[in-house]
């Protein structure tokens, strides 16, 4: 069954907006885990727009204490800056179960593309090895239609399908226009021996159809929509609704 990792970036956005401690990302993560979430995801950035290095350290302690997975996302090429030690250094400190490499720049509002694996494979190979040496599973952010053979050649364990285009097509009422590329890429990844995660702009509305079409997604990491929905319905109820969607999409034995 697809595992749910809740991304708590947006709790930190709200907290940082007033410069204090609340809302507390650790308390929010605990509430999500209490509701049954399988793990927690964060995406700290050098500009500290939301999740900061100290949040990562605190969440690493919480997830380790509960023996659940911690997934840290980031651009492995981004240099240290203002309290951000760099992704590799942060993972060396916190030893997350999984690191998801994302080719984000500070100028981006949010993550909006995967790697160009043919072009970046040689640069990724030593980085993947370095994260493996820390005991991390390595997932690479990938567009539907990405060069899966080049992704596999990097030595990574999984890809994470960037599902922004899926959400956009779904919201515009034309999901069938986006789905074939996702189905093909997921199939290619599994045939290459890669696991398949998915994330970005997934929501209660668009998750079920994607999981049903792709089958066998290892993990979805969901933040923006989930936290927004929780503003109306609470974290416990909202997380349980996502879990019900992943359970409903699980293959019947
Ligand atoms: C990689 C990805 O799609 C998300 O995990 C990312 O964390 C979104 O970043 P923001 O929460 O800053 O939009
Ligand atoms: N990797 C995707 C993620 O962690 C959360 O993305 P979003 O749900 O905030 O768009």
UniProtKB/TrEMBL annotation:
**Catalytic residues (UniProt):** 43 (proton acceptor), 73 (proton acceptor), 200 (proton donor)
Q: What are the entry keywords?
A: Cytoplasm, Pyridoxine biosynthesis, Transferase
User: Which superkingdom, per the lineage?
Assistant: Bacteria
Asked if the keyword Ribonucleoprotein belongs to this entry, the reply reads no
User: What GO molecular function annotations does the UniProt record carry, in alphabetical order?
Assistant: pyridoxine 5'-phosphate synthase activity
Pfam families, A to Z: PdxJ
Q: Which EC number(s) does UniProt give?
A: 2.6.99.2
Q: Does the keyword GTP-binding apply?
A: no
Annotated positions binding 3-amino-2-oxopropyl phosphate: 7, 18, 201, 223-224
Q: Where is this site: Transition state stabilizer?
A: 160
Q: Which Gene3D superfamilies match?
A: Aldolase class I (3.20.20.70)
Query: Which reaction is recorded as catalysed by this protein?
Result: 3-amino-2-oxopropyl phosphate + 1-deoxy-D-xylulose 5-phosphate = pyridoxine 5'-phosphate + phosphate + 2 H2O + H(+)
Q: Where in the cell is it found?
A: Cytoplasm
- Subunit structure, as described in the record: Homooctamer; tetramer of dimers.
Regarding protein family, the annotation reads: Belongs to the PNP synthase family.
Its biological purpose: Catalyzes the complicated ring closure reaction between the two acyclic compounds 1-deoxy-D-xylulose-5-phosphate (DXP) and 3-amino-2-oxopropyl phosphate (1-amino-acetone-3-phosphate or AAP) to form pyridoxine 5'-phosphate (PNP) and inorganic phosphate.
Q: What is this protein called?
A: Pyridoxine 5'-phosphate synthase
Q: Which organism is it from?
A: Luteimonas flava
As recorded in Swiss-Prot or TrEMBL, the protein's gene is named pdxJ
């Amino acid at each position: 069954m697809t595992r749910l990792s809740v991304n708590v970036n947006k709790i930190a956005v709200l907290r940082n907006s007033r410069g204090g401690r609340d809302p507390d990302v650790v308390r929010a993560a605990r509430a999500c885990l209490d509701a049954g979430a399988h793990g927690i995801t964060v995406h700290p950035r050098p500009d500290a727009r939301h999740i900061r290095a100290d949040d990562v350290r605190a969440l690493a302690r919480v997830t380790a204490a509960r023996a659940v997975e911690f997934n840290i996302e980031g651009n492995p090429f981004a240099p240290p800056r203002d309290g951000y030690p760099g992704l590799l250094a942060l993972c060396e400190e916190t030893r997350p179960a999984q690191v998801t490499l994302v080719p984000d720049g500070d100028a981006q509002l949010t993550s909006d593309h995967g790697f160009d694996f043919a072009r970046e494979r040689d640069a990724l190979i030593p980085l993947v090895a370095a994260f493996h040496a820390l005991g991390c599973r390595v997932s690479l952010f990938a567009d539907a239609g990405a060069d899966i053979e080049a992704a596999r050649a990097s030595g990574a364990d999984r890809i994470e399908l960037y599902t922004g285009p899926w959400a956009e097509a779904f919201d515009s009422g034309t999901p069938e226009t986006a789905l074939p590329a996702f189905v093909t890429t997921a199939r290619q990844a599994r045939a290459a021996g890669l696991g398949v995660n998915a994330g970005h702009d997934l929501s209660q509305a668009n998750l079920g159809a994607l999981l049903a079409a792709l089958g066998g997604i290892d993990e979805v990491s969901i933040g923006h929509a989930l936290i927004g929905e929780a503003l109306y319905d609470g974290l416990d109820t909202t997380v349980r609704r996502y879990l019900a969607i992943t359970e409903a999409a699980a293959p019947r034995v």
